[in-house]
Amino acid sequence: MQPTASSTTTAVDAPATYTLWQMVVYMLKLGTIGFGGPVALVGYMHRDLVEGRRWISEADYKEGLALSQLMPGPLAAQLSMYLGYVHYRVIGASLIGLAFVLPSFFMVLAISWAYVHFGGISWMQAVFYGVGAAVIGIIAMSAYKLTTKSVGKDKLLWAIYLIAAIVTIVTESEMAWLFIAAGLLVWIVKAPPKWISGGRLNALAAAPVVAGAAAVSTVDWPLLGQIGIFFAEAGAFVFGSGLAIVPFLYGGVVTEHHWLTERQFVDAVAVAMITPGPVVITVAFIGYLVAGLSGACVAALATFLPCYLFTVIPAPYFKKYGKLPGLIAFVDGVTAAAIGAITGAVVVLAKRSIVDLPTILLAIVTVGLLWKFKKLPEPVIVAGAAVIGLIAYPLMH
């Protein structure tokens, strides 16, 4: 589905219909009550900012989603930064990014303190038992809305969408090369370029950076330095956001550095899933267990700083060349692949959260409620699911 001339006009061509403070307040709220991880969060932003308030154009949203998928790091956080950049440039991206991330960061700090001082969090399993099932219903509805809105009836985009979904389900990870290949395919088919060059440039430029990061990580730094380098690598070189960063973190903090035990790492993932905001905020919990408050701050800053730079630096070029037919086609292809990967992620996450009859029923009821009551707040569903989990989990286990 190719955008019309009017739909490809970026929001920067018209004055903002909202203030920077209004956007900051919105992102603070989303970071405080936005459950469901990256899949749900990008859906909330589309629903509220594109369809509801109409602060952001469909074209700007698609550009931001495409850029966020192409770059490594947390998907939802990067998209929030890009949407802040649309009208308010670097200051907007900076304030919006902080507003989105800080609420969940402070929540994780509080949980980390309680975890350390009270010897673990046994009730987490019960809460996540219920919340995890409800979240699957929430993100399934978000994926459905994104699919119907962005993929439309275009057969090529549907083929890309399905391939990306299947690859994500089979590999249980998101592959950046697939997004790039999808964009190039649609570009070549729908807006054939006169020449194609520089395709190897980014890969060649990235290679020495990766090698350099690996070399630096072998230096015998103090603990905070080691934490900073490890989590900077996680933020700079891991694609797929919360879905893909978990195995990377496991390999580093449990297997390589032995900072956490298996049980502590599982609890860290649980903390990320039962708190709102970006799933990758689990890095703060891990940092706290390793080196206290300073460890949490260093881990979070090191993880999110690369994604901030990867958003702000290329953003002007996305805005400047957003109307070119080739870029429009490229963004359409990347968007289709991104939404396919998001849909596949629903299945991957469901395999971990839908484990018996009560969780199946919870997920189905969640979808039914959201389908029937369009304005039902998701936090209400999450709270109800948490209560059900606390009651049902001891009975089922």
- Uncertain regions: pLDDT < 50 for 5+ in a row? 1-12, 197-220
Tally of individual domains: 1
Shape: globular
| Tally of DSSP helical segments | 16
| SSE succession | HHHHHHHHHHHHHHHH
Query: Into which percentage range does the β-strand content fall?
Result: under 5%
How much helicity do the residues have?
Answer: over 70%
Extended strand count: 0
What profile does the largest beta sheet have?
none
Mean pLDDT: 81
Description of the structure:
It is a single chain. The protein has 397 residues and is an all-alpha fold. It has one domain. The chain has helices at residues 20-33, 37-52, 58-70, 75-117, 123-150, 155-171, 176-190, 201-216, 223-237, 241-256, 262-274, 282-312, 315-320, 325-353, 357-372, 378-396. The longest helix has 43 residues, at 75-117.
Q: What features would you highlight for this structure?
A:
globular; 397 residues; single chain; mainly alpha; 16 helices
How is this fold's topology laid out?
Blueprint: H1 20-33, H2 37-52, H3 58-70, H4 75-117, H5 123-150, H6 155-171, H7 176-190, H8 201-216, H9 223-237, H10 241-256, H11 262-274, H12 282-312, H13 315-320, H14 325-353, H15 357-372, H16 378-396
Task: Give a brief rundown of this model.
By secondary structure, this protein is mostly helical. Helix content is 77%, strand content 0%.
